[in-house]
Amino acid sequence: MTGISDIWTVVIIGVVTIVYTFFGGMTAVVWNDFIQLVIYVGGALLAFWFVLDRVPGGWGEVVSTAAPDGKLDFLNLNLNLTEPYTILAGLIGGAFLTFATHGTDQMMVQRYLACGDRKKSQLALLVSGVIVALQFLLFLLLGVLLFAYYKHFPLQNELGHVNEILPTFIVQEMPPGVSGFIVAAIFAAAMSTLSSSLNSLSSSSLNDFYRARFVKGRSESHYLAASRVLTLIWGILLILVAVFARTQTDEVLQATLTITSIPMGSMLGIFLLGTFHRRMTQTPGLLGMTAGLIVMIGVSQFTTIAWTWYVLIGTLCTVSAGLIAQRFSR
Q1: CA–CA distance, 326 with 319 (Å, rounded to integer)
Q2: DSSP string, 52-87
Q3: What confidence tens digit (pLDDT) does each residue in 48-84 have?
Q4: Contact criterion met (CB below 8 Å) for 146 and 166
Q5: Which one-letter DSSP state was computed for residue 251?
Q6: What is the pTM of this model?
Q7: How many helices (H) and strands (E) does the chain have?
Q8: Are 17 and 235 in contact (CB under 8 A)?
Q9: CA–CA dist 269, 258 (Å, integer)
Q10: CA dist., res. 329 & res. 217, Å (int)
Q11: How many beta carbons lie within 10 A of that of residue 162, not counting itself?
């Protein structure tokens, strides 16, 4: 969209996000997340209206164009575990993915803690569920609109990847100013996720390892400086990960959720072991977590099971291995 190479784009977004997270901490993350949410939802609404306006015949034509190709189908009752988007996979697999991301991931837990008390964090979680559902619906419908638009106005040149469809529309069809706002919305979405990840990684590294095991009893100013150094280190590592992730061939959302789902089963499994098994100790729990992670790497690499089942499988493996290890350790 900008003429800048993807590597430089990753580096620029990464450096800017590292800077405000480095100096502002959780406060900067929360307020920037809010501003970025407004920008990228506003950008999506603007893109939605703009594409709909360009389709001859409006919404009725979109429906008649997209429906025959199955673009409006949302009830898939297939029981095949190799299909990711079925009702069963959504209700069961999706529930376990959400248990893991919203129940055990430090990126979400830090937000609950920032709410102030239990009731506020519960309310924030419920409201965010509604907002996320509406947000997903908006972007899915935007994809349907783009499909209908390019049915009427086919591309002159074939795209290298399906992820290029929205950027192509932005560059070729939107006027200056509007296109710039949409680009800013896409950048805002990337920076929002990155800043939360940086802050949670820094916080976990500091409190669970540096402060608890290596450097105890120092002043708060020392730990603040250490957290900033950790933010910088994690920022560099995440930039490198993003550079290598450019080779992913899946759609962006599916690739992201697939990668996320591989370790999440182990995280949820060890959380459940620690919460509901009062005699569970550290070593069996970690053994169970390791076993679950190894199994999930094998499942992702050597089977055709859909990614929507990864967290459930990983959780069951982690809990089972942990219970077996605890029994033998006794």
Answers
A1: 10
A2: HHHSTTHHHHHHHHHGGGTTT--------TT-SSSH
A3: 998 999 898 889 999 998 988 888 888 888 888 899 8
A4: yes
A5: -
A6: 0.80
A7: 12, 0
A8: yes
A9: 18
A10: 33
A11: 12
